[in-house]
């Protein structure tokens, strides 16, 4: 392991440590108690972000349920460097938000993919004076519905409340953006509580668990306001006529914590799997600023714990180690061991601390799936994999996606394809397989429980 790999790996292990999380949570709580300030959740609303529109529909319920203060802030959208693929970002977000909204009991109207910026600012101007008002939640939902339907929205006299207080809409946005950045984040639809960030509806079950454990829940015997959906089970369906294209990466923390669960879904449903590994995002030029990397690694640890998946003993396989690992893949695929190899490698690199940068580490990864190292060692350094991962990347891009892990489902009882990105969409992938295999449940009848393995 070279020095750069050692430094990156050590940093990841520190970031995912229980000690750092305790410090990250404990210092703000201590400062709050010393100052006598009340406990407070901060919510950052981006009016042209579909996930913010979903989140604000649950905000009122959260505010009435938990015994602490909530502060609302308006923010602009993330900079291009945080979007991964700016040309695909907006369309992906709207499509994804619409595909999961019903399972959360909320909605995103059919209409525009990208609201007009004049209308976006007009909504901000109307909401800027309501941030501390009981009317904010209702008005944000009402204006959001109109905005996402594509209606033309102008300013109204409600924008004068902010101006009268000496704060224009631009000032309110500037203040929100500055606080978001100062606390270490970059997206809208974010909730922040004493050292930790929670993205939209997808991560609220983490926040609610923390608030319950801290004694802020007024109804501790009740379930969370926003449980993560489990969707519709595909166990035992006849899914051989359904195709699942799965796009993993060898340097993706989110892939690492979802790979075994994806393979379990394949086995439970009988879906026809097409494994399509791609190069890591940063190795193909997709930017990831430091704040984004920091959030991803900590969020992965939190998600891994919720799923009961080992994670944290990391040997970061960036650069040449990934290329060397991929060079073995075509040979192992021909031996019928491609699926097992990827799983073994990801576990070694992200959960077991095996030094996969060395031949000895790769040999361990290979031999424990039942393949003698001598059967594939000659392929080490081969360029055969390049054509494979490039073809897979083109397929990923054609689906309007760029991140990993990604999924594309086709065939069965539905026309067209369903595609999504993220380990937190595995329940939605399972639902799609079930529906294409003939199960007829709807979002309203599907189970919604805090997950242990989804």
Describe the structure.
- This protein is of the alpha+beta class and 454 residues long.
- Helix content is 48%, strand content 10%.
- It is built from 16 helices and ten strands.
- It has helices at residues 3-15, 18-35, 50-65, 86-101, 117-128, 136-149, 160-164, 169-182, 204-213, 253-269, 290-307, 320-334, 338-352, 359-367, 384-398, 426-436, and strands spanning 40-45, 69-74, 190-193, 196-199, 229-231, 242-247, 272-275, 406-411, 417-421, 447-448.
- The strands form three sheets. Strands 2-1-3-4 form a four-stranded mixed beta sheet, with helices on both faces. The chain has a four-stranded mixed beta sheet with strand order 7-6-8-9, covered by helices on one side. Strands 5-10 form a two-stranded antiparallel sheet.
- Helix 5 (117-128) crosses helix 8 (169-182) and helix 12 (320-334) crosses helix 15.
- The longest helix has 18 residues, at 18-35.
- The two termini are 34 Å apart.
- The model is unreliable at 447-454 (pLDDT under 50).
């Amino acid at each position: 392991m070279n020095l750069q790999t050692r430094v990156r790996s050590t940093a990841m292990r520190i970031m995912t440590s229980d000690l750092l999380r305790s410090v990250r949570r404990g210092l703000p709580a201590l400062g709050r108690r010393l100052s006598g300030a009340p406990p407070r959740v901060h919510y950052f609303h981006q009016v042209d972000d579909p996930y913010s529109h979903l989140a604000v529909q649950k905000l009122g319920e959260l505010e009435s349920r938990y015994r602490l203060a909530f502060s609302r802030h308006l923010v602009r959208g993330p900079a291009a460097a945080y979007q991964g693929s700016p040309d695909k970002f907006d369309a992906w977000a709207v499509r994804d938000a619409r595909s999961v909204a019903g399972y959360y009991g909320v909605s995103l109207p059919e209409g525009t993919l990208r609201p007009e910026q004049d209308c976006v600012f007009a909504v901000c101007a109307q909401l800027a004076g309501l941030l501390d008002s009981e009317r904010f939640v209702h008005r944000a939902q009402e204006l959001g519905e109109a905005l996402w339907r594509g209606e033309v929205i102008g300013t109204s006299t409600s924008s004068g409340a902010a101006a009268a207080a000496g704060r224009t809409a631009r000032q309110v946005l500037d203040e929100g953006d500055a606080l978001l950045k100062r606390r270490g984040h970059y997206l809208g639809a974010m909730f922040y509580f004493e050292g930790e960030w929670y993205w939209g509806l997808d991560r609220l079950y983490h926040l609610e668990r923390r608030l319950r454990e801290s004694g802020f829940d007024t109804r501790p015997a009740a379930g969370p306001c926003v449980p993560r959906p489990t969707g519709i089970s595909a166990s035992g369906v006849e899914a051989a006529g359904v195709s699942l294209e799965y796009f993993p990466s060898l340097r993706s923390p989110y892939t690492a914590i979802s790979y075994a669960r994806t393979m379990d879904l394949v086995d439970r449903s009988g879906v026809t799997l097409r494994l399509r590994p791609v190069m890591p995002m940063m190795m193909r030029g997709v930017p990831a600023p430091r704040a984004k990397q920091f959030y991803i690694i900590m969020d992965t640890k939190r998600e891994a714990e919720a799923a009961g998946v080992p994670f944290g003993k990391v040997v970061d396989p960036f650069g040449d180690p990934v290329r060397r690992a991929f060079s073995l893949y075509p040979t192992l695929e021909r031996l019928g061991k491609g699926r097992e190899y990827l799983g073994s490698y990801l576990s070694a690199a992200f959960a077991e601390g095996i030094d996969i940068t060395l031949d000895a580490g790769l040999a361990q990864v290979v031999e424990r799936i039942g393949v003698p190292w001598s059967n594939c060692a000659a392929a080490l350094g081969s360029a055969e994999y390049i054509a494979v991962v490039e073809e897979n990347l083109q397929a990923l891009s054609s689906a309007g996606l760029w991140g990993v892990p990604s999924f594309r489902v086709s065939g069965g009882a539905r026309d067209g394809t369903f595609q999504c990105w993220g380990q937190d969409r595995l329940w939605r992938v399972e639902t799609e397989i079930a529906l294409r295999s003939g199960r007829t449940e709807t979002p309203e009848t599907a189970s919604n429980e805090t997950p242990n393995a989804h």
